[in-house]
C-alpha cells in the first residue's frame, strides 16, 4: 500500500531534508519513525528537498508498506517516535501512481521578514531580521516582472543540478503586516535557492539600494554571479503542495503563524 503523509517541521535543528551520512536530517528521523510503526525498513519520497534551516508547514511525502495500519495509527504512531521539531499532520492511502515529488503540479513558499530596528530573540530561527526600513511597495513592483515563464538562471544556486532553469511563477506577492513582510510565491517548481535569491533581490530593492527594475535586469542576465545576495534560510517555509484532484489531496495553504492570524491581510 502507498501512503501519503502531510508533515510540518522546524528546519533549524536539521541539515536539510535529504538523508546524509553524518548529519541529522528530516528525512532520516522520519524514516526511522515510520519504520518502527511499519515493523520494517521504510524509505520516503518528499515533494521538495528543503535546505538546512528551512521550515515546512505542510511538506508532502509518500512511502510504500505492507503493514496494515489505519490513517490514525500512522499519524499517532509515527509522531510517538519523532522529535518535537517534526510532526505528522495527516495520513492517507493513495493510488500506486502517486509520487509526492513528480505528481505535484505546483508548490508554494512563504518568506517571512521581521522588519524592525532591534534583533529578535524568540523569532531568531523563524524569520529573517532586517533592521533597515523596507519599502514593500517597491518590492511588490519589482516582483511583478518575475511572474510568468522565465529562465531563472540568475536566481538559482551555482550548484543547482536541475536540467532546465526555466520555471513558471504563477503568483509572487509582497505584503506587509505590521513589523512583518511576507513574500509569497507559487510556481510549477523551484530551482535550488530560487526563493531565497528572489527574496535577496527584493530586499535590496526594498532598502533602496537598487531600483525596482533591477529584478528584471538580473533575470535577463541569466548569470547567477551577477545576481543579488542569497537571503538567509530562517525565514523560508514550504506552505503547500498541489496535486491533481484525482488523488484527493487538496488541503488549504498552511501559513506559518507568525505576525498574522493566518489570513492574507495587509495592514499598511
Short description:
With 268 residues, the chain is of the alpha+beta class. The chain has helices at residues 26-38, 71-80, 136-144, 194-206, 214-221; strands at residues 2-9, 45-46, 55-64, 86-94, 104-115, 128-130, 148-151, 166-177, 180-187, 236-243.
Plain-language structure description:
Strands 1, 2, 3, 4, 5, 6, 7, 8, 9 and 10 form a ten-stranded mixed beta sheet that branches. α1 (26-38) crosses α2 (71-80) and α3 crosses α4. The chain is built from five helices and ten strands. By secondary structure, the chain is an alpha+beta fold. It is globular and about 60 Å long. The protein folds into two domains: 2-102, Alpha-Beta Plaits (2-Layer Sandwich); 105-238, Pseudouridine synthase I, catalytic domain, C-terminal subdomain (Alpha-Beta Plaits, 2-Layer Sandwich), CATH 3.30.70.
H and E order: EHEEHEEEHEEEHHE
Write down the overall mean pLDDT.
94
The tally of domains stands at: 2
Work out the number of β strands: 10
Uncertain segments = 261-268
CATH top level class name of the largest domain: Alpha Beta
Question: Outline, from the CA principal axes?
Answer: globular
Give the key terms.
single chain, alpha+beta, Alpha-Beta Plaits, 268 residues, 2 domains, 20% helix
Fold blueprint:
Layout lengths: L1 E8 L16 H13 L6 E2 L8 E10 L6 H10 L5 E9 L9 E12 L12 E3 L5 H9 L3 E4 L14 E12 L2 E8 L6 H13 L7 H8 L14 E8 L25
Parallel strand pairs: 3-10, 5-6
Antiparallel strand pairs: 1-3, 1-4, 2-3, 5-9, 5-10, 7-8, 8-9
Helix pairs in contact: 1-2, 3-4
